[in-house]
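Q: I'm building a small set of examples for a reading group on sequence design. Run inverse folding on the following structure and report the sequence directly after it, with nothing in between.
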């Protein structure tokens, strides 16, 4: 009687993929900056959704990491920028932004809808907390999955 080969399980063994792992970063905000520019679009860089003009807006939030405690990159700069292609995704996005770490600074780049920038700028003086839900840093890079901004400190920040 021949020996029947066992079917291998298709379940992945070992560590879960980075895309499924999550890390939470709690940041106490201390300042902000805003940059805006408007120009004619270059003929070789014209996008159908922007027409003949190019508008660029970045709201930069600055702060320090409170959680995880003793984090290797205590300074934070979070750049919220407008991207006209944000609502035109054909393929499902892997995240809403990305993070990089260098020196003592963690920098996040997050695309936000153009319609929300006015509200964010109006509240910028009152923003106190920022939470980033992201993949763990891998070679000093990560994908940001969600962002939460608050005008009150988190209850566990004493």
């Amino acid at each position: 009687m021949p020996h029947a080969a066992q079917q291998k399980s298709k379940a992945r063994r070992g560590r879960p993929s980075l895309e499924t792992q999550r890390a939470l970063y709690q940041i106490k905000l201390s300042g902000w900056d805003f940059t805006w520019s408007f120009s004619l679009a270059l003929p070789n860089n014209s996008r159908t959704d922007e027409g003949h003009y190019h508008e660029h807006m970045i709201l930069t939030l600055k702060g320090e990491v409170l959680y995880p405690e003793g984090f290797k990159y205590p300074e934070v700069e979070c750049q919220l920028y407008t991207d006209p292609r944000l609502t035109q995704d054909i393929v499902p996005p892997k995240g809403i932004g990305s993070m990089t770490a260098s020196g003592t600074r963690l920098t996040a780049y997050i695309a936000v809808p153009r319609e929300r920038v006015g509200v964010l700028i109006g509240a910028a003086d009152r923003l106190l907390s920022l939470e980033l839900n992201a993949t763990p840093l891998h070679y000093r890079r990560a994908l940001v999955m969600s962002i939460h901004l608050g005008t009150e400190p988190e209850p566990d920040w004493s």
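The chain has a mean pLDDT of 85.
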